[in-house]
Amino acid sequence: MTLEEKLGQLQLLDNPAAAADRAAALDLVRRGLVGGILNAHGAQQVNELQRLAMQESRLKIPLLFGYDVVHGYRTIFPVPLGEASSWDPSLAEETARIAATEARAAGVNWTFAPMVDIARDARWGRIVEGAGEDPFLGAEMARARVRGFQGRALAAPDAVAACVKHFAAYGAAEAGRDYNTTDLSEWTLREVYLPPFKAAIDAGVETVMSAFNDLNGVPASANPFLLTDILRGEWKFAGFVVSDYTAVPELIAHGLAADEADAAAQALNAGLDMEMVSRLFNLHGARLVRQGKVPLARIDEAVRRILRLKFRLGLFDRPYVDETREARLMLAPAHLDAARRAAARSLVLLKNQGDLLPLRKDLRAIAVIGPLADSQRDVLGPWHAAGRAEEAVTLLQGIRAKVGAKTEVLYAKGCEIEGGTTDGIAEAVRVAKAADVAIVAVGESAEMSGEAASRTSLALPGHQLALVKAIQATGKPTVVVLMNGRPLAIEWVAENVPAILETWFAGIQAGYAIADVLFGDVNPGGKLPVTFPRTVGQAPLYYNHKNTGRPPQPNNKYTSKYIDAPWTPLFPFGHGLSYTQFRFSNLQLSRTRLSTNERLVVTVDVENTGQRAGDEVVQLYIRDVAASATRPVRELKGFARITLAAGERRTVRFELGPEHLGAHDRHMRFVVEPGEFRLYVGNSSAGGLEARFDVFD
Ligand code: NOJ
Predict the structure, then answer these.
(1) Which of 284, 367, 398, 558 has minimal Cβ neighbours within 10 Å of its Cβ?
(2) For position 170, what pLDDT does the model report?
C-alpha cells in the first residue's frame, strides 16, 4: 500500500449521496482514499458504492458501512433509556440481535452503538441514548448490546460490528449542555464513567468512538491517557478507534491544536485510528510522516486494525449483500413481536393511586387526549435509523385495537407539544367529561432529546401542564401517559394525578404495548434507570452521590440541601410499581466477616402477595462506610428481574466478590478495603432490607 492508500483506510466519509460534491466523493472511493462510509444504507445503495471500491480502486479493499442503528434498524425498539428501564439485559441483547439482522441485510456492517455514556444531568438531551445514571446497570446493558449486535461470528449475515461511544465522560457535560467541557476527577472517571466502556470491551466490542468533549483539559479525540494508556495499556483493546463527526478539526476550536495539521498529528499520536467525515488525516498525514511528526508505524498500526475488522466481517470474501434478503427480513413478524414485548417491558408505572390501573376493556367511553396520543413520529424517538413514522403504532391506535366494540374511544389533541395556544383545551375537557376515564399523553417531542437537544427546563413544555390540570379538574379518573427522552420535573402531576405511566419513546409498537399495560394484559415491571428530580435546579441529581460532611437533616439549616425545594428526588432511581405487591423478607448473608478476596452470597425471599402474576426487579446495593477515598451512599451491585405468580415466593441469590466490593483508592488502584459495609436489598434505591458485614485484611 502507498502511504496515500494507507491514509485512505483511515477515512470514514459521509454518504456521497448527501455530499455537496457527489462526484468528488465518489472519486475518492475510486482512488482508494476511503476506508468506510457512514449513513449509506439499503442493500442496493451499499452494493453500488462497494462496487466502486471493489472494481475501480487499485487495491480492491472493501468499504465499511457505518450507521447509527441505536435501537433498531427498521423495526424500532424503545429508546435505550426506555430499554434500560426493563432492567433486562437479555431483552437488550435480543433487540440488538434483531437490529443487527435487519441492518446487515440492508448492507450496514457497523453500528455506532451502544452509546454507554453515564448521564446524571437530565438537562443533557443524550441521556435518552444511554442506560441512565448507574455504572453497574450501564455495564450490564453495554455488555448485552455488544453481544446482541456482534452475534457469534461477525461474518454471519446477521451480525454487525459494534462501536461503543462516546469515549469518554461525554455525559458529564457541564450544565447539561451538549458538547460542553467536562472536568472531573480521575476517581469519578474510573468509578462512574468508564465501567460501561470496560464492560463493552470485555464483551469483545470491535470499535470505540472518541467523544467530542474536552476532558480535564485534553479533548477526548486527542487524549493519549484515554486512547492509549487506558484503552490499550490497561484494557488491551485490539480494535480501532474512530473519531466522532468532525471531532479532529474541532481540536482547533477547543484550543488544543494550532491548525489542521497539528490537529491531525495530535489525534493520530494520541491513538485515534479513523477520522469521521473531516479529512485531515488524508490531507496532512503524508506530510506529517515525512516531517517525522507522526511515525509511519502509527499509521500502519491504524490501518492494520481497520483491515482486520474488514477481514473479520468477511468483507474480502463477500463484499456485497444479497439484495433480496433485505425485503424479506424487514419488519418480520417476529421482530414486531419482540418490539411489542420490549416496549411493554420498558414501561414504568410511577404511580397508581387507588388501583386506578389496569382499566377494564368494557368501559362505556374512554377519552384519549394529548399532543402525543396520536403522534407516530414521536414514539420512534430521536434516533430511528430506517424506521418510518407511518409504520409506528400510536397510543390512540393501540387503545382502539384493544377495547371491545361497545367501548367508544374519543380523542382530542388538546394542545401542541410546544408553543401553540390553549384553544384546544376546552374540546379536550368536553371529551373527558363524556368518558369514564381520561388518558392524557404528554411529554416531549422526539427532537427535544438526543444530540444537540439540551434543555434548561425539565417541565412539560408548552401548554401541556395546563391541559393535564384542566382534565384532572373534570373529576374524571385521569391517567397520565408520559412520552419523553429524559426525566421530567412533574411535581404537580405526581401529587395530583392518580396514575402515571412512564413510556419513554417506546418504538414502532408503542401504542399496542402501552395499551397492553393500561388494560392489564401485561403487568408493568420496569424501573427507573434515572432519578426524577422535582425541579431542574436539583440537576445533577443521582442516587449514588457522596454523603457530604453534613448530610441533609430536616430541622438543621446548616446541612446539605436547598432553602426553596426539598433535596430529595420526585421518584428515586430504581422506582417502579406493579399491579401486584411484593414482600421482601429473610435477607441472609453467607457470612458477616470476610477477607478482602473472599466472596459473599446474599439471599432474599421475595413473595408476590397480590392477586395477579407480576415482575419485580430485586435490587442489591452496598455502602462502604469508611474508605480511603470516600464512597457513595449506595452503589448498585446486583439486580434480577423475576416473574412470580400470585402467591408465589422465591429465594433470589446474589454473589458479591472483590469486583463488587472494591473501588479505586487515592492512587487509582482498584482495591477492597477492610472495614464495615452495609447492604440493602429492595425494590428501589430507597429503603429496602438492610444488613451489614465486615471485611478484614
Ligand atoms: C455524532 C454523534 O455524536 C454520534 O453519536 C454519531 O454516531 C455520529 N454523529 C454519526 O452519526
Answers:
(1) 558
(2) 98
Q: How confident is the model at residue 191 (pLDDT cuts 50, 70, 90)?
A: very high
Q: How far apart are CA 87 and CA 85, in angstroms?
A: 5
* Band (378; pLDDT cuts 50, 70, 90): very high
245 touches ligand 1 (CB under 6 Å): yes
Q: List, for residues 549-582, the tens digit of each pLDDT value.
A: 999 999 999 999 999 999 999 999 999 999 999 9
Nearest-atom number in ligand 1 for the CA of 113 is 7
The response to whether residue 41 sits with its C-beta less than 6 Å from ligand 1 reads no
Which residues in 498-513 are b (16+ Cβ under 10 Å) and which e? Answer: bbbbbbbbbbbbbbbb
All domains in the chain, ordered by first residue:
1-67 (no CATH), 73-326 (3.20.20.300), 335-538 (3.40.50.1700), 582-696 (2.60.40.10)
Q: Ligand 1: which of 38, 170, 276 to mutate, most ligand atoms within 8 Å of CB?
A: 276
The reply to whether ligand 1 has any atom less than 6 angstroms from the CB of 244 is: yes
How many angstroms separate the alpha carbon of residue 243 from the centre of ligand 1? 9
Ligand 1 atom with least separation from CA of 39: 11
Is residue 14 lining ligand 1, measured as CB closer than 6 Å? Answer: no
Q: What does the alpha-carbon distance between residue 296 and residue 176 come to, in Å, rounded to a whole number? A: 40
Confidence of residue 257 (pLDDT cuts 50, 70, 90): very high
> Across-strand partners of 439?
368, 479
Mean pLDDT in residue range 658-671:
98
Query: 665 near 599, Cβ under 8 Å?
Result: no
DSSP 360: P
Task: Give burial (CB, 10 Å; 0-12/13-18/19+) of 1.
Answer: middle
What's the residue count for the chain?
A: 697
Report CA-CA distances (Å) from 441 to 300, 370, 388, 397, 501.
55, 5, 21, 13, 9
Residues 6+ apart with CB under 8 A from 42: 106, 107, 326, 386
Average pLDDT, the chain: 98
Q: How far apart are CA 273 and CA 212, in angstroms?
A: 15
The preferred substitution site among 244, 246, 250 for testing ligand 1, maximizing ligand atoms within 8 Å of CB, is 244
Whole-structure pTM value: 0.98
According to DSSP, residue 633 is labeled: S
* Active-site residue (options: 117, 214, 244, 262): 244
Please compute the mean of the pLDDT values over residues 368-396 and round it to a whole number.
98
State residue 538's pLDDT score.
Answer: 98
Share of the chain above pLDDT 90, in %: 100
Give exposure, 474-496, as e/b (b: 16+ Cβ within 10 Å): bebbbbbbbbbbbbbbbbebbee
Secondary structure of residue 635 in the 3-state scheme: strand
* 244 in active site: yes
| pLDDT in the model for residue 397 | 98
* Alpha carbons 668 and 671: distance in angstroms, whole number: 9
What is the C-alpha separation between 586 and 440, in angstroms, rounded?
41
Cα four-point dihedral sign 105, 106, 107, 109: negative
Mean pLDDT value of segment 66-94: 98
